[in-house]
Amino acid sequence: DGGITQSPKYLFRKEGQNVTLSCEQNLNHDAMYWYRQDPGQGLRLIYYSQIVNDFQKGDIAEGYSVSREKKESFPLTVTSAQKNPTAFYLCASSIRNTEAFFGQGTRLTVV
Amino acid sequence: GNSVTQMEGPVTLSEEAFLTINCTYTATGYPSLFWYVQYPGEGLQLLLKATKADDKGSNKGFEATYRKETTSFHLEKGSVQVSDSAVYFCALSDALGNTPLVFGKGTRLSVIA
Q: Which residues in A lie closer than 8 A to residue B105 (C-beta atoms)?
């Protein structure tokens, strides 16, 4: 089955710790995206990549980092510089100018 | 820049009521338009889409028509069910496909039996 897989579904982070969220797709899509969603809020774009080895900052990139070494993978690292990381993180992929397909999300909680 | 404006929620309806969720957009050229649905604790799923003016997207009883003259893409359903309770997002893709989808803020729908 083709799709996007995010892991883990739930993640707990201690203060000052970096954590990495995984996103893998087997849809052969060139573009991949990371969004953050807070309770009762819309989606905010963190980073996106339209091609391997290239990515651009979105609206709220501070405190996050990404890499795009393979077409299938676009991991997101939440660094200790992100002061309020508790949120629901969504990964998506698309072919240009078409709809995006989303993963099931990772819920990150700071403990 | 491109933007999407959705009616604010939450919207509460009784089962079998008629649903309209308004969506208007600002964009240059001829963007593609989408409606996504998000159930609790899940990612977004594409509900329907339209890629050119006067196109009607439809799926699972939901419909939306791409109105270039009013820059709108309102979501409608003739008879909602409890299982339609979710958050609905309107989105657009710019005509050249060079930038990520732009989303509205979402509208929460609750349907009561």
A: 41-42
Q: Do residues A72 and A80 touch, judged by C-beta distance below 8 A?
A: no
B46 touches chain A (CB under 8 A): yes
Residue appearing with tokens 């700071």: A110
Interchain contact, A99 vs B45, CB within 8 Å? no
Type of residue at B77:
K
Angle at B47 between CA B6 and CA B45, to 5 degrees: 95
Per-residue pLDDT of chain A (111 residues; tens, 9 = 90+): 679 999 999 999 998 899 999 999 999 999 999 999 998 888 999 999 999 999 999 999 999 999 999 999 999 999 998 989 999 999 999 987 688 999 999 999 998
CA dihedral over B43, A91, A65, B1, signed as positive or negative: negative
